[in-house]
Amino acid sequence: MECQNTTSTLKINLRRNIGTVVIFVEGENDECEILKQIFRNVLHYRYIEKKRNRVKINDYDQYVMRGNENSQILVINLRNSNIQNIVKDVDYQNQIFKMMYEKYHIDIKNVPIYFLWDRDYISNRADITKKLLKSLGNAYENNDGINGLLLLSYPCIQSYILENFKENTENLQIKDLKKYLSKNGYRISEINTHTLLKSVNMLHNKLMKIGIKDYDPSNFSKTNMKIFEYEENFFSNHQYYKMLSLVSIILIDLNIITERP
Fold first, then answer.
1. Which of 136, 81, 74, 129 is closest to 105 using CA atoms?
2. Handedness of CA 101, 105, 106, 107 (dihedral sign)
3. Which of 75, 21, 18 lies closest to 52 in space, CA to CA?
4. Alpha carbon distances (Å) from 10 to 197, 255, 256
5. Looking at the DSSP assignment, which residues form a beta bridge with residue 11?
6. Burial class (CB in 10 A: 0-12, 13-18, 19+), 134
């Protein structure tokens, strides 16, 4: 997609049939709440969630928009938030897929898979993160046998919440982003179609400042690496990351948000 500088060139396809989509998330709280708000409350897809510390699989399907009945989002915690578990905990991933098939008859073969992670420089080493960004560049297939597209948030997932509501977030340096969001009344529950488009616009503006004019979500490794190198260089000079979240890439890759003809 070409990076746009206005939401007027973008649209949301509310009746887009996406089939089954799997999203693995690092955290149990905000990540799940964000995805639930987007896919269940705004887009009205079936939403199924498996958190690491709960045996039960939660199925939220009280309202599915007509025409979206065959679209479902599976949001799953890995057992540990360390980014290495994306490739080291494949047995657990397969175990969850088996549970999904047995309970919901959902076949996970040939479905897009995404991994949402924070750029935590303390717990996730830069060399390991860089290696994963290179190998996990396509939601459908990759060369090393592990399917999925790794999407980072700098410094954390709360950057995405802020991008839905506030202009010019990249140069903000906030020690406790959760408290900042609460103090200013930026709530996940208020994310809507307008703010989703706004967050894509924010993403595109930030990518253009990095020097990225367009990108291909189905071949995202080079773009991921350019963003990573830019953020790491900025961090080494300023000791904090510029706020940037790649959550919106999921909506673009699934053709939920597209350019207007």
1. 74
2. positive
3. 75
4. 7, 11, 10
5. 258
6. middle
Angle between helices 221-238 and 126-135 (to 10 degrees): 160
Q: Extract the tokens encoding 70.
A: 């065959």
Q: Which amino acid is at 116?
A: L
Instruction: Read off the amino acid at residue 97.
Output: F
For the full predicted model, state whether its pTM sits above 0.90: yes
Instruction: Give the percent of the chain with pLDDT over 90.
Output: 64
Give the residue from 168, 138, 130, 174 showing the smallest Cα distance to 156: 174
Span 232-244, pLDDT tens digits: 999 999 999 999 9
Take residue 160 and report the two structure tokens written for it: 């995405």
- Pairwise CA distance, residues 46 & 24, whole Å: 16
134-143 pLDDT, tens per residue? 999 999 875 4
Number of other residues whose CB lies within 10 A of the CB of residue 197: 22
**What is the SS3 assignment for the chain?**
CECCCCHHHEEECCCCCCCEEEEEECCCCHHHHHHHHHHHHHCCCEEEEECCCCCCCEEECCCCCCCCCCCEEEEEECCCCCCCHHHHCHHHHHHHHHHHHHHHCCCCCCCCEEEEEECCCCCCCHHHHHHHHHHCEECCCCCCCCCEEEEEEECCCHHHHHHCCCCCCCCCCCCCHHHHHHHCCCCHHHCCHHHHHHHHHHHHHHHHHHCCCECCHHHCHHHHHHHHHHHHHHHHHHCCCCCEECCHHHHHHCCCEEECC
For 85, residues 6+ apart whose C-beta sits below 8 A from its C-beta are: 78, 79
List the Cα angle 9/117/213 in 5-degree steps: 30
Peptide bond connecting 217 to the previous residue in cis, omega within 30 degrees of 0: no
